[in-house]
Design brief:
By secondary structure, this protein is mainly alpha-helical. It has a domain at about 5-85: Multidrug-efflux Transporter Regulator, Chain: A, Domain 2. It is about 50% helix and about 10% strand. The strands form 2 sheets. The protein has a two-stranded antiparallel ribbon with strand order 1-2. Strand 3 (about 90) and strand 4 (about 100) form a beta hairpin. It starts with a helix and ends in a 22-residue tail after the last strand.
Length: about 120
């Protein structure tokens, strides 16, 4: 890859290499893999540099969200293990509103709580 290309990618923030004391760029293995992906998207797929920047941004967001989901899952597992049982349940009103309630507690909403049974074998 040409040095000017590397400088441009650095200016655009596509790749941010570490620096030596003299100001030279030092690329890690992760940086090199990222540079190869940028080059592939640009040359093979014809994606513009702004498009590549957006793709990389979205990939970083996905990675952050996956990490957060893993954290929340671990936290939920810890709460369940500590309590030994589920302490909250959720119900949905006919309007589509979701209510959180304690186990055994009925949600309070003003609509009818009537149960309607539909039997498809009967004809009206």
């Amino acid at each position: 890859m040409h040095a000017q290309t590397l400088r441009q990618y650095d200016r655009l923030g596509l790749v941010t290499p570490s620096r030596t004391r003299g100001g030279g760029r030092r690329y890690s293995q992760r940086d090199v893999a990222l540079l190869r992906e940028v080059q592939r998207l640009s040359q093979d797929e014809g994606v513009s540099l702004s498009g590549i920047a957006r793709i990389l941004e979205l990939e970083n967001q996905v990675a952050a969200l996956r990490s957060r989901v893993a954290e929340l899952t671990a936290e939920l597992d810890a709460v369940r293990a500590a309590s030994g049982r589920v302490t909250r349940v959720f119900s949905v009103a006919p309007s589509g509103d979701v209510y959180a309630a304690r186990l055994g507690e009925r949600p309070r909403h003003g609509r009818s709580q009537a149960l309607v049974v539909w039997n498809p074998t009967r004809s009206s």
